[in-house]
Design brief:
Largest sheet: 7 strands, mixed
Number of domains: 2
Structural class: alpha/beta
């Protein structure tokens, strides 16, 4: 697994759709980030520069575009469980800084908090002022907001609720918000990755993000006072849930942000606003409703073959015939 803070120069992908392009039913759009050795976006590439494979089979690319002014839709998922109590003010400050640094007038965002339950603190809006007012309400285990997604108390009344329904929050954000949104979509998760109370698994959260073409980024806050034994969920394995979520959706996990938030947000914004979108149409026999692995790389004949890094989501769910 990659150490991401040390790799801020690498690219990430966000899935996008240009509203004035018509594509066939069943077509698949794949967004990718292409960066040079310094981490700067590479522009003016053509279809001939790319190679795209679906489950190992080379696919013809129907169309390609690159835009830097399409609006963003951002879901901010903030962990307010006990293990994050030392970082609540840091979370407030980070979300406020993200809005100030990244949000433009045409962008929209919503805020979800996760403790024993997931709550919708701020619904989708382009009003930065409204989002800032709601940010001030973020508090450990006592943040207001409407129930978001399934309630663990209702679904698992006998088992009870755990301390952090993190994957429930990611799952609901993708299925209840991002599913209905076109364009560039991303979730930014502020958490340590400890999930102790979700009815949805990490795998289900990843699938929900992939199915709705949503990229996840994570800013990982670890309280050194919370040991694996105290948390009771690590066992002998390292906690890599956030890394898996971001890797498989095309984003990055940034550990131990400290004073690097400005650079992190600049990196995320560069990823979201500088990307190529490749479109292809799977053949009829490939429209099986199953998960397909994607590979996007520079074509061997491209002048950029050895000098750039390409990053895209791990796969997609094929439309069924």
């Amino acid at each position: 697994m990659r150490a991401v803070i040390a790799a801020l120069g690498f690219g990430a992908a966000l899935l996008a759709q240009k509203p004035d392009i018509r594509v066939e039913v069943g077509a698949v759009n794949v967004a990718c980030e292409v960066t040079d050795r310094r981490g700067a976006p590479v522009k003016n590439l053509t279809v001939a520069d790319f190679e795209l494979r679906d489950n190992g089979r080379l696919q013809a690319i129907d169309h390609l575009w690159q835009e830097d002014d399409l609006p963003l839709t951002i879901g901010l998922v903030v962990d307010v469980s006990g293990s994050q109590s030392a970082f609540i003010q840091s979370h407030r400050d980070a979300v406020t800084q993200f809005l100030k640094q990244v949000m433009r007038p045409r962008d929209r965002a919503f805020i979800v908090t996760v403790g024993p339950e997931a709550k919708l603190l701020a619904d989708l809006t382009s009003s930065v002022e409204e989002l800032r007012r709601r940010i001030e309400l973020i508090d450990v285990l006592d943040t207001p907001g409407a129930q978001f997604g399934e309630s663990c108390e209702a679904v698992l009344p006998l088992a009870g609720c755990g301390g952090t329904a993190l994957w429930n929050g990611v799952y609901a954000s993708a299925r209840q918000k991002m599913k209905w949104v076109q364009g560039r979509k991303a979730l930014i998760v502020l958490s340590d990755g400890l999930d102790t109370g979700s009815m949805h698994s990490l795998g289900e959260a990843i699938e929900a993000a992939q199915e709705t073409e949503t990229v996840a980024y994570a800013i990982k806050y670890i309280d050194p006072g919370i040991t694996p034994a105290q948390a009771g969920v690590f066992g002998r394995k390292p906690n890599r849930g956030l890394e898996r979520l971001t890797d498989e959706t095309g984003g990055w996990t940034f550990p131990n942000p400290q004073e690097q938030l400005s650079a992190i947000f600049s990196k995320i914004e560069a990823d979201l606003r500088n990307q190529y979108v490749l479109g292809f149409t799977p053949p009829p026999e490939a429209r099986d409703g199953r998960f397909h692995k994607l590979e996007v790389r520079m074509h061997a004949d491209s002048a950029y073959f050895k000098d750039v890094t390409v990053r895209a989501r791990a796969g997609y769910f094929a439309p069924a015939r």
